[in-house]
Amino acid sequence: MVSPVDTVLLTLPRGGEVEITPGILDDAARFAFTAGHCHALALALHERTGWAILAMSGRHSLRPDLQHVVVVMPDGRWLDIDGPQEPEERYYFQELTAEEVANMGKIKYWKDPETHIAREFVQPLLQQYQIVV
Question: Would the pTM of this model clear 0.85, i.e. be above it?
Answer without folding.
Answer: yes
